[in-house]
């Protein structure tokens, strides 16, 4: 199994500025931020499942656009997996015939372009030997992270979150764990903003990891480009034992 980082930035500007999206093999997406724009129509047509962490635009903006772009090349609906509350938000505020056509009933209710599939934290979805499991997240809107397990190795992605002991309890107990991707959007100078927006900053992440251990690579996503170097310096100092590195768009993990 391969996981390719299409976008991982906390904003659209800057080098590798696509927002969050991860491609699993060639048929599964985790989030559909602007990083999806890296894919061709042929690649979009191969995607059968999209797992959404939460409803914010930097994680969903290209979901309606990719449905439209590949519609003529698909014979089955695109299945969108998310918590029920997130699916309700997407239906009410995105696929609502005002912002974008309601592809849950287009071309027809019997043969729609999009099918919604609700999931719950802790429940895994197995797709041809690859298991995606929703993990707890704490954000400004209902949110989850995901664990992706090939059977030979696993990767976890926090999605957008702030202080989240439940997530780290699960991570520290996971077998076959190779990579941990966690967001850190703001430097400590903007801790108040991080707290209000329910994101990590280095001191909040360090507090969560104080008594946590795992033998896996720690990668940092969702860096705001203006503060990226500062955030990484602070993380290097606070989390030296984990040797954190920024996640780069284009990286491919083999699990």
From TrEMBL:
InterPro entries: Metallo-B-lactamas, Pdiesterase2, RibonucZ/Hydroxyglut_hydro. Residues 18-222 form the Metallo-beta-lactamase domain. It comes from the Bacteria. SUPFAM superfamilies: Metallo-hydrolase/oxidoreductase. Transmembrane segments: none annotated. PANTHER family: 3',5'-CYCLIC-NUCLEOTIDE PHOSPHODIESTERASE 1. This is 3',5'-cyclic-nucleotide phosphodiesterase.
């Amino acid at each position: 199994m391969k996981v390719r980082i299409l976008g991982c930035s906390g904003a659209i500007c800057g080098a590798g500025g696509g927002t969050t999206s991860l491609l699993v093999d060639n048929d599964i997406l985790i989030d559909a931020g602007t990083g999806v724009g890296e894919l061709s129509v042929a690649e979009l047509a191969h995607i059968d499942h999209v797992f959404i962490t939460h409803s914010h635009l930097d994680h969903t903006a290209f979901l309606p656009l990719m449905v439209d772009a590949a519609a003529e090349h698909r014979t089955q609906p695109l299945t969108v997996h998310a918590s029920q509350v997130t699916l309700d938000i997407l239906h009410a505020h995105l696929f609502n015939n005002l912002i974008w056509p309601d592809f849950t009933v287009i071309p027809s209710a019997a043969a729609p372009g999009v099918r919604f599939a609700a999931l719950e934290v802790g429940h895994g979805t197995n797709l041809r030997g690859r298991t995606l499991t929703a993990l707890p997240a704490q954000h400004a809107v209902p949110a989850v992270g995901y664990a992706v397990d090939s059977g030979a190795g696993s990767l976890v992605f926090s999605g957008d979150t702030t202080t989240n002991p439940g997530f780290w309890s699960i991570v520290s107990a996971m077998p076959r764990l190779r990579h941990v991707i966690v967001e850190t959007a703001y430097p400590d100078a903007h801790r108040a903003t991080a707290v209000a927006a329910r994101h990590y900053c280095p001191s909040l992440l360090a507090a969560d990891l104080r008594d946590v251990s795992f033998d896996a690579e720690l990668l940092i996503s969702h860096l705001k480009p203006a503060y990226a170097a500062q955030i990484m310096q602070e993380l290097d100092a606070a989390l030296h034992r984990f040797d954190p590195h920024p996640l780069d768009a284009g990286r491919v993990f083999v699990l």
